[in-house]
Specification:
By secondary structure, the chain is an all-alpha fold. Helices cover about 55% and strands about 0% of the residues.
Length: about 100
């Protein structure tokens, strides 16, 4: 389900939400969405058989990050959260080279 609420209205919630327990593979997924990779591109870069696997992994990450603050799973929100947390939770993500 797409997130329809104005992004500006939930920025404070995203800034306050901290989560540090990403696996190395989850960090790569986050880095890939930051640079705008599609599911197909991520699948090819990680040599995953189908883009559905990528969607499943991203849904798990979205639930870990957004679920505890009652926000729906959304790539847009995860992308925004990753950028907002660049000095804390995702500082290593933003330093990764993707594929």
């Amino acid at each position: 389900m797409p997130f329809s609420q104005p992004l500006a209205s939930i920025i404070p919630t995203l800034k306050q939400r901290h989560f540090h327990e990403f696996t190395p593979l989850e960090n790569v997924y986050l880095a890939a969405i930051i640079v705008g990779c599609s599911d197909k591109e991520i699948a090819a870069g990680l040599e995953v058989v189908v883009p559905g696997t990528v969607r499943r992994h991203l849904a798990i990450i979205e639930t870990k990050v957004l679920g505890p603050v009652a926000l729906p799973s959304s790539r847009r929100l995860l992308h925004t959260w990753t950028l907002l947390q660049e000095r804390c939770c995702t500082r290593h993500v933003l330093q990764l080279g993707v594929f």
